[in-house]
Amino acid sequence: MTETASLARPSWPAVWLAAARPKTLMAALAPVAIGTALAWTDGGFHLLAATCALLAAALIQIGTNFANDLFDHLKGADTAERVGPVRVTSAGWVSAGTMKMATALVMGLAFASGLYLVWRGGWPILAIGLVSIALGVLYTATRYALAYTGLADLVVFVFFGPIAVAGTYYVQALDVTTTAIVAGIAPGLLSTALLVVNNLRDWREDKAADKKTLIVRFGEGFGRAFLLTCIIGAALTPVLVVALSGGAGWGSLAACLILIPGWRTWQTARRSEGRALLPILGETARLLALYGILFVPGWLLTA
C-alpha cells in the first residue's frame, strides 16, 4: 500500500470535489464566456445554447479529470513519491471500478447536455463533442495516451482555445468568424500554462513512470521558457483581436494587464520546483480567470 493509500478518507463530497479538480475548471469556463461575449456583440447571443455549452464544457473537464485519476493509478504514475494533490483512486478513497463508472456517467451527461447543441449546430458540433469526449479519456488511457507522449499540450491549446471559443460562438450565432478563432488563442495558451505548471511539478515522477511530457523530453529549462511564452502570448492576444475587429472592442485590451501578475507568477515558478510549485497552479488558474474578467466586459462595453 502506498503512502497516499494510508491517508484518512475525507467525506464523500470532499473526495469527489478533489477528484473533479476545481482549479482546472476555469479552462472550460473561460472560453465559453469569451465566445458568448463575441456572439452577443455580433447579435447572435442565444441563452439556451450558451448554457448548454457551459454545462457540456464543465462536464467534459470533470470527466477528463476522473479518467486521469483512474488511468494514472492503473499505470502506476501516482505513487507515494507524488508531490501534487492526492489522487483519490491511488489513495484508496474510490475504487478503480467506481471511478470508471463515474467517468462514464459524467461523459454521458456531457454528451446529453450537448444534444441540443448538435440539433442546433449540426454535424460539426457532433464531431467536436465526440472528439472532445474521446480525447478526454485518451488523455491518459491506452499506451499511446496524450499525456504520455507529449501531445497533450497541443491538444489542450487547440480544444480549450480556438475550438472552444469558436465553437461556443458558432452554436449561438450559427456562424464562425476569424475574430472568434483568434480570441481563442489566449484561453488556449493559459490552459496550456496550467498543464505546464503541473508537469513541471511532477516531472521526476512522470519520468519514472515513462510519462514523456514535453518537460520530461526537453527539460525543466524548456518548461519554464514554455510557461513564459504562454503567459506573454495570452497577454498579447487582445491586440490581435482588436486589430482584426478594426478597433472595435478596444476595452478588451485591459486583458493585456495579466502580464503583470503573470510575470510575478513566472518569476516564482522559475525559482521553484516540486512541492513549491503547488501554489503556482492556483495562481495560473487565477490568471485565466482574470483574463476572462478583464476581456469579457471590456469587449461588451466597447465592441
Question: Which tags fit this structure?
Answer:
303 residues, 15 helices, mainly alpha
Task: Give a description of the structure.
The structure is a single chain. The protein is mostly helical. Helix content is 71%, strand content 0%. Helix 11 runs antiparallel to helix 13 (220-244) and helix 13 (220-244) packs antiparallel against helix 14 (259-270). The chain is globular, with a radius of gyration of 19 Å. Residues 1-5 have low confidence and may be disordered.
Largest sheet entry: none
What fraction, in percent, of the residue positions are helical?
over 70%
**What Rg is obtained from the alpha carbons, in whole angstroms?**
19 Å
Low-confidence sequence ranges: 1-5
Structural class: mainly alpha
Quaternary structure state of the chains depicted: single chain
Strand content: under 5%
Tally of helical segments: 15
- The best one-word shape is globular
Please give the number of β-strands: 0
Write the H/E string, N to C.
HHHHHHHHHHHHHHH
Average predicted local confidence, pLDDT: 90
Q: How many angstroms does the end-to-end distance come to?
A: 58 Å
